[in-house]
Amino acid sequence: MSTKESLAENAGQDAVATLNKRTGRNMPQAVATGALLVVIILACILVRIDAFIYLIVIFMTLGLWELRVDFATAGLHIPVVELWVCSAATMLASFYAPDHVAVMTAGVLITALVGALAATRNHRLGGRLLKAVNAKLSGKDAQTMADASYGTAEGDSRSSSLANVGVTLLTVVYITLLACLITLPTTFGGHPAAHAFMVIFLPALSDIGGLLFGSLFGKHKISPRISPGKSLEGLAGSMLCCLVGALVIFAATYPMADWGRIWWVALLMGIMVGATGTLGDLSASLIKRDLGIKDMGHLLKGHGGVLDRVDSILMSAPFITLVLLTTGL
């Protein structure tokens, strides 16, 4: 290898290392994982919308397991099997049933009731869960542990039934309900693929815009204690990317004759999702900070866990659904 080639390679490695430091993640891995996810999601949406629904069910199932492990590190218990069954049944029933909203509402309430009752039972850590918890605990650094609200003080090792019921109900709202609201927009309006694009890819653009603008220009922190990397400049980048994405999706979906009536919806959608996506990131960061963990999981290389990837999608889903419903789109 020549001296010039060696210098170029070292410069490239230094640039990647600098980018990784600024963003707080392994960017080559993150880009590769993100590209693979985009291909899978696009294939599901474009081939058959039912495949997209089942894909969300799979992601929801993985997310519930991640929360099961995360809460267990703090001595908290959620009945994951009951939540798996009830949540999957709720999502599928609300998609295929004629009255989508009513079935979704009933399913979420039943899931909450079954989960709350199951959370009061005596429980113990199984072998696989114990291994996952030990791996998660061994990865905690001293500062993260010091900042944690749970699992670090004496007496926190055994949680009360009330605490277990509380985190179970939180899980039903955070996973079951919000996941149903990801799929609900595909059931109305006559544009299931476009609605799926809005729910999935607009929050993803929010993440990308926030990451790029925050790493390049971020100076004014939104909440240094909850998420030191989030900045007002990143928020502006999130809104800008979402706005462009919303305009592109609307342009590809609705005829130009309708733009005089709906142009403001695209603008609202872009600005709104930029804000709600950032709120989703901050909410997930708050949960992780309180539990004393860095990532929700480790399944997605460069991103952390499934919930680390979909936190902005989950938080944006009810707002996107509300806008689409109220505007008749």
From TrEMBL:
Q: Name one GO biological process term.
A: CDP-diacylglycerol biosynthetic process
- Which cell locations does it reside in? Cell membrane
A single GO CC term, please?
plasma membrane
Keywords attached to this entry: Cell membrane, Lipid biosynthesis, Lipid metabolism, Membrane, Nucleotidyltransferase, Phospholipid biosynthesis, Phospholipid metabolism, Transferase, Transmembrane, Transmembrane helix
Gene Ontology MF: a single term: phosphatidate cytidylyltransferase activity
Q: What is its main location?
A: membrane
Q: Where, by residue number, does the polypeptide cross the bilayer? A: 35-62, 101-120, 167-188, 194-214, 235-256, 262-287
Q: What EC numbers are recorded for this enzyme?
A: 2.7.7.41
Main enzyme class: transferase
Q: Please write the reaction equations for the catalytic activity of this protein.
A: a 1,2-diacyl-sn-glycero-3-phosphate + CTP + H(+) = a CDP-1,2-diacyl-sn-glycerol + diphosphate
How does the UniProt record describe the way this protein sits in the membrane? Multi-pass membrane protein
Give, as in the UniProt entry, the pathway in which the protein acts: Lipid metabolism; Phospholipid metabolism; CDP-diacylglycerol biosynthesis; CDP-diacylglycerol from sn-glycerol 3-phosphate: step 3/3
User: Do you know which PANTHER family this protein is assigned to?
Assistant: PHOSPHATIDATE CYTIDYLYLTRANSFERASE
Similarity annotation: Belongs to the CDS family.
Q: What is this protein called?
A: Phosphatidate cytidylyltransferase
